[in-house]
Structure prediction request, 490 residues.
Amino acid sequence: MENLNLPKRVPTAIAVSITLLIWFVIPVPDKVSPDAWHLLALFIGTIAGIIGKALPIGAMSIVAISLVAITGVTRPGKPEGAIADALSGFANPLIWLIAIAVMIAVALTKTGLGTRIGYYFIALLGKKTIGVAYGLVLSELVIAPVTPSNTARGGAIVHPIMRSIADVFGSSPDLGTSKNIGRYLALVNYNTNPITSAMFITATAPNPLIVDLIAKATNSAIKITWGQWALAALLPGLVMLLVMPLVLYALYPPEIKNTPNAKELAQTELAKLGPMKKPEFITLSVLGLMLLMWAGVPMWLFGPAYEINATTTAWIGLSLLLLTGVLEWEDILKAKSAWDTLIWFAALVMMATFLGKLGLVGWFAQTIQQGISFLGLGWMSATALLILVYFYSHYFFASTTAHITAMYAAFFAAGVALGAPPMLLALALAFSSSLMMSLTHYGTGTAPIIFGSGYTTLNEWWIAGAVMSVVNLLLLAVVGGVWWTVLGYI
Prediction:
């Protein structure tokens, strides 16, 4: 008899216990409805299950959707309305934007275009170790706008290139020679990922969730477009990408400083790939067209009537790749991460949305606001404190999506109530939501892949993460503050 893949006992027991504790034991606070409190119990229990990995995140989300429908917390006594509410997340266009974009990113790996781009930059900059580092950075940056799975980008595309380079120089954890060059390149490989994730709405799955939360919190007064996000992140993001390899170079200097073999390796790998093939040209053309549409170029050239919705753009891109034969329907069916994202994203967005509608987020935000107001801080100091608490609480999360869903809306509402300019606060919290990935070896899906390759110790990883968190937050405050003032957001 085959073993059943049952939920993990301890994480499941913790998640269930937390849910029951909030639902039945902790008194419902004043100004909070019982339905809102019970939905919070389900929500926190789901987050606890995700963090503890009681089940895969998609499976946890199926359970959460079922519980919302069964308990009727969104519409007591109306079963048909309850299931409609539970499934409402699937009607959110932003969820489909990410799911479709993940499917499109399959073309990067299937055609070899992603690998070609990576080795091209290594061949261009790879004479010295610092040049190799910037080659990895540029590789990530170029493909970031069209790879909403930051794990696929940093772990499945760039990391194998990084390991190939380390192997050429005999830098291996098995040989005890990681310090030669592998440790440094692994840290650059990883710390690039949070920065590029912060630079585009489509660079990591939770970013559209943030856009949705901001729109709901402001009654659609602030609806951040793909172009607005990219422009706001442009200067601070580029400065971070420029500074990060230098900081890590000073913190953990590689023993090998010159790397002529890296350039030779890249050129050899490019030669193996041969000249660009038709599927690569088509993929590159489609991705370029999508970036133009996401950036709003048709609207700028021909007027508002030619504005194209971001999700519509993703559907157009996927359609073109299917029509040209670059992708086949089997490729789409096999894109497990896309379908997985669609399920868990829909569940978490649904629960977060109804927590707002039922007044729980507003109550929590008011509680935070009152606590900070008691300190007598001005809005700038209060905003800084909010961001720091939000950022460093990621030490307790193994999922950026869970963290954002649990805390973003409440912290945003609290900051606005404390007097922070809404657009400034929205951007600062949004970019922090990706930058906080740098902290730990479990902070996002990319982390265990790169850390698991063994080039760094746990101590080295955490120190690098702590240092880069300070550097990135300072650059976000200083460079971002100046840039957003120029853009008129402050």
